[in-house]
């Protein structure tokens, strides 16, 4: 069976790698945080000492890192993985990064005869654990067909968004909508509660009415409304506010390149920056709720 290297075992990478193990793929794993490597080693993966060690002998390399600079650092330059991966290797890069950065890594991979896909995901940590992620893939259709069985072990919906970088463009558009919905939901929850409504009652009314959206379905920002949501666990786990701020920044950069006007995205970015200034960047992005309560 295909030998896979998995690099980046954070909130998302760890459960994604676990699903590959469950599907029977031989896996060699690496993260800068040793405890994450040890966790997966205890479940049947081989622990690597470095990204290079993980990818030795691998036919497929998967990475799930925080941002563009980590991805460029991993793959580019004389010390980067692309300088050592043999031609014919398939790289599935799942981090959310700038479309420009993704295109740079694509170009370097092509020069080396390495097939690369930008394949950012949606679905959150719950989707990663359940193996129900959505993959938004940019790159060549042929490479996607090679990757499909592996992606299917981690996700349910796999979209070919278009050529190099298209997966990242789709992802920043999606996350801009998500941030705007989260903020709108949080401000409405605070408004309703301040005016005498029970949070759970208001949440259910809006969920089943025309204000219904993904955050009301799966991820209510008001503590105690949804037991499984990060809001009910002190805003821990989930998707960090600093990563949402990063994605909103990417959306603004992308809009600047194309000359698009994105005022809702711009406002959302400003509100997330405020949260970061308040020291809440490591908390789940639904912590934006706290901007609207005393
Ligand atoms: P995270 O910070 O929990 O995990 C990133 C991991 O990468 C960390 O464990 C870190 O130690 C590791 N890492 C960083 N540089 C490394 C390197 N050079 N070599 C090896 N490991 C390295 O982040 P996350 O929440 O898992 O998110 C990962 C990516 O997925 C981000 O781009 C994020 O925007 C995106 N994303 C996250 C979610 C979510 O709900 N958390 C949802 C969709 C997409």
Automatic annotation (TrEMBL):
Pfam families: NAD_binding_11, NAD_binding_2. The active site is at 171. SUPFAM superfamilies: 6-phosphogluconate dehydrogenase C-terminal domain-like, NAD(P)-binding Rossmann-fold domains. Pathway: Amino-acid degradation; L-valine degradation. InterPro entries: 3-OH-isobutyrate_DH-rel_CS (IPR002204), 6-PGluconate_DH-like_C_sf (IPR008927), 6PGD_dom2 (IPR013328), 6PGDH_NADP-bd (IPR006115), HIBADH (IPR011548), HIBADH-like_NADP-bd (IPR029154), HIBADH-related (IPR015815), NAD(P)-bd_dom_sf (IPR036291). Residues 3-162 form the 6-phosphogluconate dehydrogenase NADP-binding domain. One of its GO terms (molecular function) is NADP binding. GO terms for biological process: L-valine catabolic process. Belongs to the HIBADH-related family. This is 3-hydroxyisobutyrate dehydrogenase. The lineage of its organism: Bacteria, Pseudomonadati, Pseudomonadota, Gammaproteobacteria, Pseudomonadales.
């Amino acid at each position: 069976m295909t030998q896979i290297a998995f690099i980046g075992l954070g909130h998302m990478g760890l459960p994604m790698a676990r699903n590959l193990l469950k599907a029977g793929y031989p896996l060699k794993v690496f993260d800068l945080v040793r405890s994450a490597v040890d966790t997966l080693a205890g479940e049947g993966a081989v622990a690597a000492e470095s990204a290079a060690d993980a990818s030795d002998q691998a036919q497929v390399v998967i990475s799930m890192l925080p941002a563009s600079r980590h991805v460029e650092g991993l793959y580019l330059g004389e010390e980067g993985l692309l300088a050592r991966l043999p031609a014919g290797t398939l790289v599935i890069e799942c981090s959310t990064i700038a479309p420009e950065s993704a295109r740079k890594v694509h170009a370097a991979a092509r020069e080396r005869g390495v097939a690369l896909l930008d394949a950012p995901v949606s679905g959150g940590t719950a989707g990663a654990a359940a193996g129900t992620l959505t993959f938004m893939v940019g790159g060549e259709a042929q490479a996607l067909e090679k990757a499909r069985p592996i992606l299917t072990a981690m996700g349910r919906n796999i979209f070919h968004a278009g050529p190099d970088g298209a997966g990242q463009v789709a992802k920043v558009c999606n996350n801009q909508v998500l941030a705007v919905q989260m903020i709108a939901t949080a401000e409405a929850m605070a408004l309703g509660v301040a005016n005498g409504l029970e949070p759970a009652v208001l949440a259910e009314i809006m969920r089943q009415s025309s204000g219904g959206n993904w955050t009301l379905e799966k991820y209510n920002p008001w503590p105690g409304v949804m037991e499984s949501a990060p809001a009910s666990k002190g805003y821990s786990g989930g998707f960090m506010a600093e990563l949402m701020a990063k994605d909103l920044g990417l959306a603004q950069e992308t809009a600047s390149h194309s000359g698009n006007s994105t005022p809702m995205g711009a406002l959302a970015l400003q509100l997330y920056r405020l949260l970061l200034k308040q020291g809440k960047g490591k908390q789940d992005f639904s912590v934006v709720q706290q901007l609207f309560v005393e």
